[in-house]
Amino acid sequence: MKEITPYLNFEGAAREAMTFYAKILGAELQLFKFSDFPGDFPPEAKDKIMHATLSKGKTLLMASDTQPGVPLQHGNDTWMFMDCESLEEIEQLFPMFAEGGAVKMPLHDAFWGARFGVLRDRFGVGWLFSFDLPKQG
User: Fold this and answer.
1) Which of 55, 62, 65, 107 lies 20 to 30 angstroms, CA to CA, from 18?
2) Chain segment 80-90, per-residue pLDDT in tens
């Protein structure tokens, strides 16, 4: 297996969510609407996002709005794991992603030697933030 790429679904909020994530992460964003592709889509779908990619370095996140006529069902089975590069990065990103969302576990020094926190962002996506603390001694 080469890699696993997270793919998020939204019900009409893909553009807003991916733009939000791209801004926070300083990543490149490509958005493609249903109207950009051939097909007989209903008029209410023309400005919704059929496919979006967010990229920065080797990191890739993809998303779309749900297909016309297919309702979104939120679950608790999908979480995004963000392995941060520094203490400064985790301390900066965590509150930005939490804005308008709900912190489930505040950032703290976990027993396994990482700075760790859990939140659900304003789009209902669950995020696990982690930074491996330097070893003591």
Assistant:
1) 107
2) 999 999 999 99
Query: β-strands 7-10, 59-65: how paired?
Result: parallel
For residue 72, being part of any structural domain is answered with no
Asked if residue 2 belongs to a domain, the reply is: no
**Structural domain that includes position 60:** 7-65
51, two tokens: 């496919």
80 in Cβ contact with 128 (< 8 Å): yes
Q: What is the CATH number of the domain that holds 113?
A: 3.10.180.10
- CA–CA dist 112, 133 (Å, integer): 9
Q: Which residues of the chain have pLDDT under 70?
A: 1-2, 75-77, 137
pLDDT score for 46: 87
- pTM of the predicted model as reported, rounded to 2 decimal places: 0.81
